[in-house]
Amino acid sequence: MPTDRSDSHLRIVWVYPDLLSTYGDRGNLHILARRAQARGIDVEMIPIAYDEPIPRGGDIYLVGGGEDRPQTLAAQRMRADGGLSAAVANGAAVLAVCAGIQLIGEYFHIDDKQIAGAGLLDLRSDRGDSRAVGELVGEVDPRLGLPLLTGFENHGGRCHLGPAANPLAKVLVGVGNDGATEGAWAGRVVGTYLHGPALSRNPALADLVLSWALDVPLSALPPIDDTWPEKLRAERLAAVLPR
Amino acid sequence: MVRAQLATALVRTAARLSRMTGRGDGSVIGGRIGLAVEPRLLTVLARGRQVALVSGTNGKTTTTRLLTAALGPLGPVASNSYGANMPTGHTTALAQSPNAERAVLEVDEHYLRTVLAETRPRVVCLLNLSRDQLDRAMEVGMLADRWREVLGVLRQQTDLPPGEQTHVVANADDPLVTWAASAAPRVTWVAAGQRWQEDSWVCPQCGAHLKREGVDWACPGCDLRRPEPSWWLADDDTVAGPDGIRQPVTLQLPGRVNRSNAVTALAAAALFGVRPADAAPRLAEVASIAGRYATVERDGRTIRLLLAKNPAGWLEAFDMVDRVSPAGAAPPPVLLSINARVVDGLDTSWLYDVDYASLRGHRVLVTGDRRFDLAVRLEINEVPFEVVDAFTDALAAVPPGRLEVIANYTAFQDIRAELGRAN
User: Fold this and answer.
1) Residue B282: its H or E element
2) What is the pLDDT of residues B286-301, one digit of tens each?
3) Which of A198, B36, B141, B280 is the most exposed place for a label (fewest CB within 10 A)?
4) Which residues pair with B72 in a beta bridge?
């Protein structure tokens, strides 16, 4: 359901912030809103608590990271609700970060239990041998037209992609899905292990999600002042990329 | 015992050397050496003393200092007052005060099990649990589980005489702390407040969505609910306690959070037999703790130092920032400084869990290793800011008068060093 920009505004649905906001996840909501507003687009931010139904008419859905217990509860609620899958079937865009990527896959593991996810991306996750904690840099799938992906990862899971999901990036620094690839995308759904405010260092990824929701090419979004995000990117990339 | 005596002597010598050579304040190195010689040194040093432990994610150092002051009427008190809150620091603190019959020890929340087992404390104060440096620490729900396990073990103390049993003083306003502490056999509940609630929406016992109404909270899915506190803040200047106690308390330390820390300190002191009327004047003497809350004069600027290490701490710090200003003058400028070195946590994501909006109207300067992270955050928060490369540049940029500084751990230490290890 691409937004009809003539009579509407952009609706960003933040899924279960009471369960899935482990570390600064709200940043992505505010970054998307700000970047849309900077292009003259009105935004409605819609946080949905986990005991509320997920509305089907949103343009962008944000799924954050959570600890094990809340993550399990979120997956159960999300599946029982069905709103997110319906919205995606209608063409809504989804950004899932950190544990969120596991949640929107086919299934994930908590302790020794296999838990069914929302099934929006063709991927399955399990436990890695060790926790992946630290800076991550990746070279993004060239079809998406984005610069290097940069951020912080902190997860114990590992993601295995099926044929219907594309890796978001090739890992240059860090672990990501499995040490080789990072994140996944298909259609208008993108997931990344970068946690928390992943968009703060990746304004172009924010714009990609916006362009999906607005049903326009990325290049159609007018540039905005990214002085500080660019300084931050440059500082972080210089700090972690091998010379 | 000879081995323990030798180890104790080594602790003191090493700590003294560390201070003399300027390598540190000696609070860790001594204990490390002593424990290498006698691994059970902490147990040995704690034996025969009445120990109180203070743990939680926020306010440990301050509460430790307040409780130490409150126990003053009973005689000398050993304490790791510099925030060296792991067993090496505890060992050093006890070794350096051989004659103190009492000790108040700040304990890193991940070390509660060990320190509890080794020091057999009379009182354990549990302040709060919130997200803190997830890149190197346990997720906060897991930490609450761990605490609950550790405190459940206290039920085995039934063979001990009442004077040696451990009594827990716990914050009834924090659901995670309540859940953990309710495993303990003897608990005094205090209403120590919870401004930061983002980590306790979900019941730690059954996973249902907690219901909150004012300060009260309860789980609709199981029996977990806020226990009736026996100590609380009756108003800004009065602590209420059992048996109709109404104790006026005036602190030099700023903020509601420190008044709440004072409630915990008075409740714990009462378990040692110190009446609130005797403890309260001692609390009023505490002005700053290792530079925290210190006010320093430099080049005509009156600089106040606030330390904030995690989102809950930042919310409390904003509550302390001076809003009022002399008639007609702007509110004081605020300098924010952020590093992300190992002890700070390498991850700056938590900046987005803090709402900086209350700083609008102040002139805001940002510095520290991760000033660009802060710049991006403030831009999104629509708080105007200026980026400066160093603390001295910030000092030069503001006019004579007040300057509020809020910094996280190593950023705070850097600024304190610039100011000659301000206390």
Assistant:
1) helix B276-283
2) 998 888 888 999 999 9
3) B36
4) none
**pLDDT score, position A7:** 46
**Residue located via tokens 């226990």:** B227
Pair of tokens at residue A173: 């620094």
Query: How many residue pairs from chains A and B have C-beta atoms closer than 8 A?
Result: 94
Q: Measured in whole angstroms, how far is the alpha carbon of residue A207 from the centre of its chain?
A: 12
Least Cα separation, residue A58 to chain B (angstroms)? 22
- Six token digits for residue B54: 């203070």
Question: Which of the two residues, B7 and A100, has the higher pLDDT score?
Answer: A100
* Best to test chain A binding among B197, B380, B388 (most A CBs inside 10 Å): B380
Preferred mutation among A14, A20, A21, A23 to probe B, highest tally of B CBs within 10 A: A23
The Cα–Cα gap between B383 and B370 comes to 17
Q: What is the pLDDT of residues B216-229, one digit of tens each?
A: 999 999 999 999 99
Contacts of B355 in chain A (CB under 8 A): none
State whether A67 and B372 contact (CB < 8 Å). no
Q: C-alpha distances in angstroms, B119 versus B39, B101, B423?
A: 13, 13, 29
3-state secondary structure of B135: coil
The answer to whether residues B350 and A156 touch, using CB atoms and an 8 Å cutoff, is no
Q: Which residue has the higher pLDDT, B288 or A234?
A: A234
Pick B202's closest partner by Cβ from A69, A133, A232: A69
C-beta atoms of B346 and A67 within 8 A: no
Q: How far apart are CA B334 and CA B402, in angstroms?
A: 9
